[in-house]
């Protein structure tokens, strides 16, 4: 056991973005993500990233606070940038030659662009995560976007159990150690013990799932048309957020098109 | 469902005509030929041995039974004259697991969930939510997170969710089985208030009869074959069926199964009258049997916490301590660490061979945390846990430094939830796991077990003996996860005993168990005490403490 | 009126055509299954993190060898729930939750989850949701792995040389076949033995 506590899937919520409607934020995040995913050039992605950072700083999440909380994201982006630099066949003068690793100015540029893009892609997801309540998001998905309510609500109920599962994981580790499990040596032993622990968690969770289904069914879930106790509301904040998001997405494209650098991923 | 403005008596009639239930793949039916009617507003306690299909009956009445192939049921069930599945909202149903009766993450939303599903207009939902929360005496803000609730509060929240739907039949399947005593009483009071006020028909399944006796007016007792054995007014039926109920393991009021007291050879100082703090490290006055009363494990100035240092810090601590120990230096004690937020502190205790120690206290006092720390599964936040040489037998004197193999032969820990400790696909392999582990270690290193390394034949004999003593012999090839609650509990104790540890630590071993399993557990623990095993039990169960003649350590006072 | 209870259990929806309609228990189990797969995947990445990042730095396509861990929800969902769309729903939800727990993927997880879930779904669709054997599971895992590679190569690895993309695809297909395919079939069998699937199409015991 260790201090591996549940990650704050949904962090403390305050500020302008927290008051915006989840559907607006989600669609906005998807729009920005789409622009970045489809664009390969560093200018588009750089402008999109910069725009997001400005927006976040505007609502009180400065770059420094982001960095201290999200360093794994930065690390992952750097690793994927390195991978690309290694494997890209972009030419240019050789900068480094180490065994099978050859890095040229061209591949380094490609790698840097990938790292930048990785950050720019991760940011919208994190922003929504940090500022959104899952229940409100589910309300929006079902009521505004018209996704099937039974599936959305079941997913919401399952999400609540994630925390329970993470707690149970550490209890399981101790309970199995008390039986002398995990005595196997080496990586194979670790894998076998991981598998056993995961299997027990699976059994417990499926048991829980059937009981939860019974509870939900007994409360009339899935029987027919339903009403909603909460209504998603849309206000001035949402217009503001929507405009900002569209400005970021369109701005990124406009800048790179104006500079003639824009490139789709398949180009 | 149109909401009724009139809260006057609204109970419905329940009819069962030759109702039976047979799960596919099972030898015997769970329920056979049940025919009875329950009048509107009647309150019924349904009793019977575990596995007699009580839960199945309630689920069928609620229309939520999970019928794998659609052919399990026979006969006819009606609620208010119609099939329960066509009577959504008429029937309210609660089961025993608090964690899966909470659906959403905010208190208000959770209560509103059922109303939304019944398509109650929005403007009526929130007043009904508040009313329902008031009714179960759960005064919390609607935004309160449901994860922050205790087990008892979660059950009352579930009751509020059910009552908000204004059911006319309330079905309760062991609603208090996972709740402590106070929580159970509060829940019971909330139910009683609600059903009496509205004249709701109620059927409750529960093996703690005393709790519900004042609430119900009729008792139905099922036999082993899922047939009605007794049916009548509460007092009369409980009197007539008393013998059968005791046999079935129902906790009838004013009765505790008789068990053999521990032999208590070796006149150690441990008695109910001495506090464990009184004899800090004092040597034991000679006992008549060698070993009995001897201190095996002791804690000094111990503070315990669920919050543990990072894995790497624990590994570093372990390496450092083991190095010190090999060089004959004293083991470092844990210093006060504010980051670890201890739940209990300043604990001094001794665990003695052949003696039982009961750790009691209110919820959240740190009882389970203390047990896990004594068992070497958590590192102390402050102070020390030390194993005497008689227990350590060549290993380092601090249980938290032992690896899994060293641990099982010295301290056996039985967790509250048996399934957490299952490792193998059959009952027999489960029991063989510990001994096999030890043998493999013995082959690998010079680690010793009590009385040398047991041979394979010894292990087989011990496993066979445990199977027989715990009535699991017929189930030797069954998958542990398929056992009943009582069988799982017995198996989880047996798996730990199979490795013959000298200290046995149990977390709420009798919690939610029927009287039959209770008696078997106590017999088993008494036998272990007589063999010189030390028993530490975290428990609320006064009867268990008395039966084991345990010394009591009360936390949080 | 002796045998009125001969219809299927569950919801009113469950009463008509049984095979292809989702009952409440199917939906809830699928959702919880996705959640637990996400949690296990998260633990698995924590466990393998040093190894995976080291190998990713040394030779990036080798990351494809553990990619199957990401795909387990799809095949397991299909094998356990046995309803059309189960693979897609489980994989999509698991991918979103894995994205939340890991946080460095962003909303592209929605696209990834859809692509990979589609791979599994296609294979079971071709059997018309009638075959749930080891072979079908392995093929489903492999196709899911292949789809993963196609998606990743398009979205992230587009700068890689073509032969490296191919190596990556071979790795993920293999990994998908073994970890998300064959292994999940054995997991499903082990789950059947525990009785927890009793209420589901995959767990129904035969009547004697």
From TrEMBL, chain A:
Record flagged with keyword Transmembrane: yes
Span of the signal peptide: none
GO cellular component, one term: plasma membrane
Keyword terms, alphabetized: Cell membrane, Membrane, Transmembrane, Transmembrane helix
Transmembrane segment boundaries: 20-40, 47-67, 73-96, 108-131, 151-175, 239-259
Subcellular localization(s) per the UniProt record: Membrane
Membrane topology of this protein: Multi-pass membrane protein
Name of the protein described by the UniProt record: Energy-coupling factor transporter transmembrane protein EcfT
Source organism of this protein record: Kocuria tytonis
TrEMBL record, chain B:
GO MF entry, a single one: ATP hydrolysis activity
One annotated Gene Ontology cellular component of this protein: ATP-binding cassette (ABC) transporter complex
Source organism, top-level taxon: Bacteria
CDD domains: ABC_cobalt_CbiO_domain1
UniProt keyword annotations, A-Z: ATP-binding, Nucleotide-binding, Transport
Alphabetized SMART domains for the sequence: AAA
InterPro entries: AAA+_ATPase, ABC_transporter-like_ATP-bd, ABC_transporter-like_CS, ABC_transpr_CbiO/EcfA_su, ECF_ABC_transporter_ATP-bd, P-loop_NTPase
Pfam families for this protein: ABC_tran (PF00005)
Disordered: region residues: 251-293, 434-459
Residues of the ABC transporter domain: 14-256, 326-557
Stretches with biased composition (Low complexity): 257-272, 444-453
Family according to the record: Belongs to the ABC transporter superfamily.
Protein name (record): ATP-binding cassette domain-containing protein
Species whose genome carries this gene: Kocuria tytonis
From TrEMBL, chain C:
Keywords: Membrane, Transmembrane, Transmembrane helix
Transmembrane segments: 24-44, 64-81, 88-112, 132-154, 166-188
Source domain of life: Bacteria
InterPro entries in the record: ABC_thiamin-permease_prd (IPR017195)
Protein name in the entry: Uncharacterized protein
Natural source organism: Kocuria tytonis
